[in-house]
Amino acid sequence: MKFTRAIACVFLFTACTPNGVLVSTNGGTSVATVTRIDVSIAAFGQSATPAGLALGFSPIVANVAVGSGVQFVNVDNTSHTATSIQGTTFPPTSPFTFSATTPSGSTLSSGFSSGTMQAGQSSAIFLVDKPGTYLYGCFFHYSGTMRGEIVAQ
Questions:
Q1: The pLDDT value given to residue 31
Q2: Is residue 4 part of a domain?
Q3: Which of 8, 24, 120, 139 could make a disulfide contact with 81, Cβ separation 3.0–4.6 Å?
Q4: What is the distance between the alpha carbons of residues 11 and 122, in angstroms, rounded to a whole number?
Q5: pLDDT of amino acid 2
Q6: What is the CATH number of the domain that holds 140?
Q7: Count of structural domains within the chain
Q8: Are 9 and 1 within 8 A, CB to CB?
Q9: What is the pLDDT of residue 32?
């Protein structure tokens, strides 16, 4: 009887959440909505953003809600990272060290890196914990303007 009630409670809770599912972020927090950002240097062309020129991510500027999650998915045939950048504009030269190739962070505000994502791989889900604009780029292709923005509201 207790097991049946637990299943009913889980069903009712997930039925009332956006997308009907709860997923756990890298930090263990549950979120109801995850924004997928596709990664491909070949498929997504260059655009001007408020922070500067960017390409290789879709959407190039992702608008997300605080409390949701963000996940990067490599849809390309080459390795990429999605690694946070401090500041309000893209630096002219790569701000990354080799540590960008290792997954790190669980929230946007604390800084994050997907680590190296091979073709077809996905990053952990990063919690959108505070409003703001978060810049990121690819360790391997930063000089080719492989960069993007997340705007959290």
A1: 83
A2: no
A3: 139
A4: 27
A5: 47
A6: 2.60.40.420
A7: 1
A8: no
A9: 84
Rg over alpha carbons for the chain, rounded to the nearest Å, is 17
Beta-strand ranges (E) seen in the chain are 23-24, 30-31, 34-39, 47-49, 52-54, 57-58, 61-64, 69-74, 83-85, 126-127, 132-137, 147-152
Q: What's the domain range around 74?
A: 21-152
Residue at 23: amino acid letter: V
Does residue 104 sit within a domain? Answer: yes
Residue 34: both structure tokens together? 């995850």
Report whether 44 contacts 38 (CB < 8 A): yes
- Of 90, 87, 32, 30, residue with least CA distance to 60: 90
Q: Check: CB of residue 56 under 8 Å from CB of residue 141.
A: yes
- pLDDT of amino acid 22: 61
Strand partners, 150: 62, 134
CB 42 within 8 A of CB 48: no
Which residues, given as ranges, of the chain have pLDDT below 50?
1-20
